[in-house]
Amino acid sequence: MVALKRCREGLKVIVFLLAIVFLSACGSRKLAVKSNTSASKMADAMSHLKSKPLYRFITDWSGVKYRLGGLDKSGIDCSGFAYLLQKDIYGNSLPRRSRDQAETVNEKSLGQLKEGDLIFFSFGGASVDHVGVYLNGNYFVHASTTRGVVVDDLNMPVYQKAMVKAGSFKN
């Protein structure tokens, strides 16, 4: 009986030591994000925002699901997101629909865009049907129909093909 008790105690010690070795091995691994990954580039774009209120606004709305006609945290569409961002961060009064918002900008080329400028897309035909807000380094924030409020890369072919207009709000 004493031998069995010692064996169990020895087994407990071995299991304990193995757990410590396993956990310390996991803790010592360094996770590195490659500097050329899209996630690290998006994080870099966010970290280089000049406007801290813009940074807070984006992080506060990040991941909010898309809802056509939505204008709150239970769901928002692209023009509603641009509308609220422009109002809250820059004090601009935009129309509610993206095609009407497109009429309120002084047009610029992609290389001339500044933080807060609007970018318009046409995914479904000739007229504007989507809007986003330029950040920097060819990144923009928008309410995606499939992913909600996200930061995306303008260099992606889907956006390159659909972009129709960009510019700053006419004061």
Description:
- The protein starts with a helix and ends with a strand.
- It contains six helices and eight strands; from the N terminus they run αααββααβββββαβ.
- Helix content is 41%, strand content 22%.
- The chain is globular.
- It is an alpha+beta fold.
- The strands form two sheets. It has a six-stranded antiparallel β-sheet. Strands 1-2 form a two-stranded antiparallel sheet.
- It has a single domain, classed as endopeptidase fold (from Nostoc punctiforme).
- β1 and β2 form a beta hairpin.
- It comes from Pedobacter frigoris.
- One of its GO terms (molecular function) is cysteine-type peptidase activity.
- InterPro entries: Murein_DD/LD_carboxypeptidase, NLP_P60_dom, Papain-like_cys_pep_sf.
**What percent of the residues sit in helical stretches (DSSP H or I)?**
40-55%
Portion in beta strands = 15-25%
Overall pLDDT metric: 84
Described by strand count, sense and barrel closure, the largest sheet is: 6 strands, antiparallel
Distance separating the two termini: 89 Å
Entry summary:
The chain has 171 residues and is an alpha+beta fold. The protein has helices at 2-28, 38-47, 52-61, 78-90, 98-101, 157-162; strands at residues 71-72, 75-76, 105-107, 118-121, 130-136, 139-144, 148-153, 163-169. The chain has a single domain (38-169), classed as endopeptidase fold (from Nostoc punctiforme) (Alpha-Beta Complex), CATH 3.90.1720.10.
